[in-house]
Amino acid sequence: MPENAVNVVPVPSGTGHSPLASLRPPKPPQLSQGRLIGIDLARGLAVLGMYAVHLGPDPSSVGGPPGFLLELARGRSSALFALLAGFTLVLITGRPQPRTGRAARQAVGRVVIRSAVLIALGFALTALGTDIDVILAFYGLIFLVVLPLYRLRAATLAVIAAATALIMPQVLFAVCRTIDEGSWPDTVVAADPLARVSGTDGFLELLFTGEYPVLTWMSFMIAGMAVARLDLTRARTHLRLAVTGGALAVLGYGGSWLALHLVPHALGTVAAATDGGSASSAWWSDAAGSPEDGTPAAWLLVGAPHSQTTFSVVGNTGVALAVVAACAVLTARMPRLTRLAAPVAAVGAISLTAYVAHILVIRVTGMEDETVPSLVELVVFSGVAMVLATVWTRRFRRGPLEYLVHATTRLADSLK
After folding, report:
1. 191, 282, 306, 310: least surrounded by Cβ within 10 Å?
2. Band (9; pLDDT cuts 50, 70, 90)
3. pLDDT tens for residues 148-189?
């Protein structure tokens, strides 16, 4: 959901009359200001990954490589989406250098307005009653929480992201225990105007009890802000991102596997808590399920994508960084593959519209009522989305919802 949406325009491989012109290698797509095609491609993969989670069949019913890819999308697509939100925040507030003076105040105002719009839109989509855990309201509140960090350098942001990944899951665990055991949450919800308006648990849900609690998911956005401060045109940066991503993935998922197998009774405790979940895969897969009655301390050793643990956050961040690195390398060095991937990047260029549209389609068509949505249905849905996104981005700079959000945030231009 970038602030500046610009189409990708291929440059002809030869414009002169030389007979050698046709032998020259094609030039990579050229971008106008404000757009990095690799980031759009990564964002498009995140959206399509969420399509797979919401529309695709259960991975265990498919098996093989397709089943592995479907399982891989669970939780990691939304983490990539959140990480790229941090990139968007830095684009709005100034990249590579933060804006200052009046421009900075206007940029901050645009972020605040955008956050309010996303929170409202998120609760509106939740009110439709689909089975989807809508990420947008959480996303909007995280924008506000991390906004004070927008002036920091990449190294500082990386340290803060690491600190939040290490500390916040434990804080969330402790808070959720008090929520389970006490009556104060009811008092908080009753006094929360957002809860009354939305018919949900309001800020309590956004911060602690929801599927994407701000306490743990803010780490992804801060990591994305750090990535946005880097020079993504340099091969050395791509290598650093790939190595860092791989190391974090191994540390997160591998560390969880070791912990679950080395800590006495950890696997058994997790299996008992999930009541039939696959505890043996709890180090990387959502197939492990979630605790039924209370969360035991052993759950902090789990690395499953939605487990809200340090192992989970570290592993998911690693996968997200590796995807960003791969997309940056592809678009920088492989122009033919970049053209083939253009429909995916088009989805990423209008990611807000693409995300909201799939929830509306699911609601209108009743797709969520099917017991096991077919793989063919997912492929057709994704194909149609890519075609429509490609057609739209060839004619317009922004998606329909991106235009509306952009127009709304322009209200901040009146700030002095």
Report:
1. 191
2. very low
3. 999 999 999 999 999 999 999 999 999 999 998 888 999 999
d(CA 407, CA 392) in angstroms, rounded, equals 18
pLDDT of residue 7: 38
60 lies in some domain: no
Residue 30 main-chain phi, psi, to 5 deg: -100, 145
- C-beta of residue 213 within 8 angstroms of C-beta of residue 206: yes
- Going from the C-alpha of 311 to that of each of 123, 158, 194, 253, 257, the distances in angstroms are 29, 17, 32, 6, 10
Say if 273 falls within a structural domain: yes
264 in a domain, yes or no?
A: yes
* Residue in 225, 247, 219, 215 with CA at minimum distance from that of residue 84: 225
The span from the CA of 401 to the CA of 407, in Å, is 10
Alpha-carbon distance of 408 to 110, in angstroms, equals 8
- Band (pLDDT 50/70/90 cuts) for residue 369 is low
Shortest CA distance to 200 belongs to which of 209, 179, 78, 290? Answer: 209
Task: Write down the mean pLDDT value for the chain.
Answer: 89
217 occurs within a structural domain: no
d(CA 113, CA 168): 26
Task: Please name the amino acid found at residue 308.
Answer: Q
Measured in whole angstroms, how far is the alpha carbon of residue 57 from the centre of its chain? 21
What's the CA gap between 191 and 193, in Å, rounded?
Answer: 6
- Rounded to two decimals, the pTM is 0.89
DSSP string, 201-227: -HHHIIIIISSS-HHHHHHHHHHHHHH
Give the range of the structural domain holding residue 306, as residue numbers without chain letter.
251-333
For the chain, the domain total comes to 1
Using an 8 Å Cβ cutoff, are 49 and 71 in contact?
A: no
pLDDT class of 192 with cuts at 50, 70, 90: very high
Judge whether 226 and 150 are in contact, CB under 8 Å: no
Q: How far apart are CA 48 and CA 410, in angstroms?
A: 29
81-115 burial code (b ≥16 CB/10 A, e <16): bbbbbbbbbbbbbbbeebbeeeebebbbbbbbbbb
Tell whether the model's pLDDT for residue 91 goes beyond 50: yes
